Prior knowledge:
Blueprint: E1 4-11, E2 17-19, H1 22-30, E3 36-40, E4 47-51, H2 52-65, H3 71-82, E5 84-87, E6 94-96, H4 99-104, E7 110-117, E8 119-124, H5 125-130, H6 135-146
Antiparallel strand pairs: 1-7, 2-6, 3-4, 3-5, 4-8, 7-8
Amino acid sequence: xxxxxxxxxxxxxxxxxxxxxxxxxxxxxxxxxxxxxxxxxxxxxxxxxxxxxxxxxxxxxxxxxxxxxxxxxxxxxxxxxxxxxxxxxxxxxxxxxxxxxxxxxxxxxxxxxxxxxxxxxxxxxxxxxxxxxxxxxxxxxxxxxxxxx
Length: 149
């Protein structure tokens, strides 16, 4: 099981390569992280990086729920794959972020990488800061989601 935590600011180089923090590299390499999948998040303006094994588990779950002979299901699967790319860390521990995916989330060179359970989110640094909840708002959200009664 993968478990990425923490947020790290970084800068993409001219070729859109980023050096992953050692905590993230360790998690990915510990799982045989030669293969990764990068995709645009469905709800937010960020990218998600999954170890290939996690991605395969997600896809197996989708395949079990979708009927390929239902047009809406086929359209969902097509769109799910449209904004996806396979990737790998290079010999220097860098990850190439495809320009087309960065454009989809309007990300510049200044990025924030956020570990969220089994994947890593890639945000434009300014967008990540702008969407942060205040302490009071986070408390209210937690209360609305988890408070009894």
